[in-house]
Amino acid sequence: MPDLSPRVADLLAGARPLLNERFTRLGGGRSPEGFLRSLRETALPLVEAAPPDAAGAVLFALFDAGVAGAERGLIGDEQQSPFEASLLAHGAPLGPLLSTSPVRVLRALGNGFHQVERALGEREARAWIAALGGLGALLSTAEALESAGLLLAWRLGLAEARGAALERATTLPAAVCATIVGAPTIDLDAARRFCAPGTSAPLGALTVVAQVGGFVGFGGAFTRPPRVFVAGDALLATDGEVTLRVFADVFGARVVRTGAPGADAVVAPSVCAVRSADEGVVEVGAHTLQDARLSGAASVAAHDSVAVVALRQSHSLWVLGRREASA
């Protein structure tokens, strides 16, 4: 164990029987050595930083988080995990929140890190928790931390979080929103979803904004060239084996696995057309785009100011939208 203050040493000694019982009951197959490593290197430094009246609650919350987090790779065995290292490196400004709501705060940090890491990668997950730490002085409640975490995940490229992030953004102080997205408020007009927050320039022409999907053998999504369609409120792509939902906006574009549309899903009337597949000309409502990358277009679908083009001989999808005219 590291050198402990008398206060924390006494706390740990008094809690040891109960902690041992909890580990026996909840620890599953985790090695005691690995758990002691995480307790020593990650939990106790945070307990030392907690106010005396909150140290006990923080200790037990970290203990339980260490048990639960190990199952998802958030807590390492022989060495610190990326989550542990990030928490220690950037979590100090969140100390007041951890002391007042330890269980809720640790759950928010762990779940958020896990979701971002799984969807976007370790680098983005580390950036996510570092950015949250930088906002610590502006976050007064655990609810604000959760909202800021969701907005940050969207800002980092978790496009499927857009709807929930926009709802949460209205509950955050303007300074928090401005720090995360560059503007104190976000325009909720879906037509401006590919415009940077805070801009008011007129919309420009329809253009290619992203490429998603790809061949599964190269780490992509599809085993054969997909087709696109709209069902209910979802913009979907399928290769006959998997059906993925397309999400896209100014901060990123992603395809996310989903179940097949339910029997009650309504297929939306087409507002798109391939006018010339050979020349790469597509029409989306009143807007027309000619782009050589769209040559061989087989199907086009649009919903909520996002259009997607699937090609006859490509596993990739081309995402179309309208940015501000100056972009």
Give a quick set of tags describing it:
four-stranded antiparallel beta sheet, 40% helix, alpha+beta, 21% strand, 2 domains
Order of helices and strands: HHHHHHHHHHEEEEEEEEEEE
Rg on CA atoms, Å: 24 Å
Weakly predicted, low-confidence segments: none
Oligomerization: single chain
The number of domains is: 2
Number of strands: 11
Draw up the topology in text.
Blueprint: H1 6-26, H2 32-49, H3 55-70, H4 82-90, H5 95-100, H6 102-120, H7 122-134, H8 142-155, H9 162-169, H10 174-181, E1 203-213, E2 227-231, E3 234-238, E4 243-249, E5 252-258, E6 272-276, E7 281-284, E8 287-290, E9 297-303, E10 306-311, E11 316-324
Antiparallel strand pairs: 1-11, 2-3, 3-4, 4-5, 6-7, 7-8, 9-10, 10-11
Helix pairs in contact: 1-3, 2-3, 2-4, 3-6, 4-7, 6-7, 6-8, 7-8, 8-9, 8-10
